[in-house]
Amino acid sequence: MQNGVVCVGSKLYSRDFPDAMSEVLPGVSWGLIEAFPTPAYWAYQVWANDQELEPINYKLGATLAEEIGACLLGGHGIPANVGLAAFGHLKNLGAFEGEVPSEALLEEWLTIPLKIGSRSVRYRFAKQKARYLHAALVALSVGGYPLSSGRALRDWLLELPGIGYKTASWIARNWLDADDVAILDIHILRAGALAGFFSSGLTVERHYLQLEAEFLALSKAIDVRPSRLDALMWYQMMSAPSVVHGLLSEAGLKAA
After folding, report:
1. φ, ψ for residue 202 (rounded to 5)?
2. DSSP single-letter state for residue 172
3. Which Gene3D superfamilies has this protein been placed in (predicted)?
4. What is the pLDDT of residue 135?
5. What residues contact residue 213 under an 8 Å CB cut-off, 6+ apart?
6. How far is CA 61 from CA 109, 174, 240, in A?
């Protein structure tokens, strides 16, 4: 048995975790709670984080239209600060309220340089993202989108152009605080490879649903909410690239 302790304010919280050598999943050991990035480490980190007084809020927008816009304007090839700046820019122009802007107008707005700190940045893929965003906003204005579960909303979003499993899962998790989907990218894939809970040879491009099932199985096995695990795992893996690359090299695993 391992004991984890966290101090929040004036309160001390304590929790026992299984022995490091015991299996959390078939063929996968718990590992030490202090050993990044074992299953026990993630279980402890999520539990410790959950003791904080402020609840986690994933939402980027105040409406589903805004949430779709924020997630769709970010993602692959677009730095987070640029995506959020583009979202804020369109929001200020009224893109997510009232009549849906035309595709041409959205593209025009997205070609306006963005002010990020002291820099002026041009948004990449303005034409492409304008087309995707216009289609999504039109579909949303028609209605009929399901909010009964994360997967139901994700399945609806997947029918829209330019929205794949990762973006659809991101929107569904954020808007519904859903625990039946996972936002999988290279950072989560690396965490799974290092901890051993992902089957080898799988990629998010070709095996998203299988990887998601394995991620959800780990979440259940370590008794944490998948949405919390996903967010914390992504943040820590993304924040320590040199450490992660070193561990991947030691384990003989590819970095990508």
Report:
1. -95, 145
2. H
3. Helix-hairpin-Helix base-excision DNA repair enzymes (C-terminal), Hypothetical protein, domain 2
4. 98
5. none
6. 19, 9, 28
